[in-house]
Amino acid sequence: MSKQETTLVTGGSAGIGRAICEALLAQGRHVVNLDYKLPDWNHAKLVSFQADLTDEATTRGRAAQVASEFDVTALVNNAGATRPGTTDTQSVADLDYVVALTLRATMLLTQAFLPTLRASGHGRIVNMASRAALGKSERIAYSAAKAGLVGMTRTMAMELGGDGITVNAVAPGPIATELFRNSNPEGAPRTQKIIDSIVVKRIGTPEDVARAALFFLSPDNGFVTGQVLYVCGGTTLGLAPV
Predict the structure, then answer these.
(1) Residue 103: is its pLDDT beyond 70?
(2) For the chain, which domains are there?
(3) Residues with catalytic function
(4) Which of 18, 42, 93, 198 could serve as a FRET partner for 234 with CA atoms 20 to 30 Å apart?
């Protein structure tokens, strides 16, 4: 019996990852979630595995397990971590952690699922970059890793396009996740300052990002690859190249 065609999402238990999972499930797709913690929600077509994606052996092991049970024809490399720090204060340990989660895990998971991505004839990869790739204070490790992910996205797109695989990146700006709200409470002057800096005058939602990911994940969307879509409310205007 053939295995179930599936989309794999990393970091799907909460925040943007959860919104992407829920949007895919609403379309009737089967979804596998890899996250360091299991979700507190469920769905008949969702399977979740706990995994520390900063650990190479664990990442390889979980990828092999998923590949043995499912045909992964779409991959969303969403898991990430900020680990704030300045040029003066950022630790090597934090840099290694962010790079392992953002870049190494993306490479390992992509390699693990290339056979089924190729075999499908319409493989889709979406990498979660960030507006911070253009530069953001106190995010030296995070911004460097996300900028690296953009470069990885473009190179993968060049190498895999002939196999029918598209590779694109979504780059969110300020998004109202639990992590954001913890640092920027509603009604606080700091939060209002952020809102005032956004062209559309509101914080983005995880669903805003999920809709962008769905555009890239559509099997019918085979002529857009190697691109970065900023979901930022206009905060990159004047910064991002055209």
Answers:
(1) yes
(2) 4-175+204-231 (3.40.50.720)
(3) 142
(4) 18
